[in-house]
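Q: what sequence does this backbone want?
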C-alpha cells in the first residue's frame, strides 16, 4: 500500500492488506523480549522445561510479543511518501486467541478502520489487525491499534 500523502491515505478507509513477508519467531527474540520486559516465565524462556511440562510441548512467545509486532507489520506494508514520522497512540482492544510456539511464522492481516485529522499536520489511524500463524486457523493476536502519522 503506497500513498503520496495523508490525504490519499484517508481515502483508503476499509481497505484490507496483508504484510508481505512471514516473520519467524525465534527463541533468541523471545529471550530478548523477556529481558526487555522482565517477564521470565519458564513457558517462554526454558525450552527444555516447556517441552516436558507445558501443554504446548514447546516454548511459546509472550502474547505482548505478538502485539508488539503490529507496528512493524504495518510499516512493512504501508508507505506514505509525505509522512515525516509516526507513533503508537494506543489500543482499543487486544486478544490472544492462540499461543505462538517458538519457530512459528507470523504475518498480519489488517484493515484501516478509521482515519481522522489530528492537529495541523497529522492523522489518527485506527487499524483492525489479526496476526496469523502459518498453518494455524486461529489467529495469534487480534487487536485494534491506533497510531498517529505526521507530515
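A:
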Amino acid at each position: 500500500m503506497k500513498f503520496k500523502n495523508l490525504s490519499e491515505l484517508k481515502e483508503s478507509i476499509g481497505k484490507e492488506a496483508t504484510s508481505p513477508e512471514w516473520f519467524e519467531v525465534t527463541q533468541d527474540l523471545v529471550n530478548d523480549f523477556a529481558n526487555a520486559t522482565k517477564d521470565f516465565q519458564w513457558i517462554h524462556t526454558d525450552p527444555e522445561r516447556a517441552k516436558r511440562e507445558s501443554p504446548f510441548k514447546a516454548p511459546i512467545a509472550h502474547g505482548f510479543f505478538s502485539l508488539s509486532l503490529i507496528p512493524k507489520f504495518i510499516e512493512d506494508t504501508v508507505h506514505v511518501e509525505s509522512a515525516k514520522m509516526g507513533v503508537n497512540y494506543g489500543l482499543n482492544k487486544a486478544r490472544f486467541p492462540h499461543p505462538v510456539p517458538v519457530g512459528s511464522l507470523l504475518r498480519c492481516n489488517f484493515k484501516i478502520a478509521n482515519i481522522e485529522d489530528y492537529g495541523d499536520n497529522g492523522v489518527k489511524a485506527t487499524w483492525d489487525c489479526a496476526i496469523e500463524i502459518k498453518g494455524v486457523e486461529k489467529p495469534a493476536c487480534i487487536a485494534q491499534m491506533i497510531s498517529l502519522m505526521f507530515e
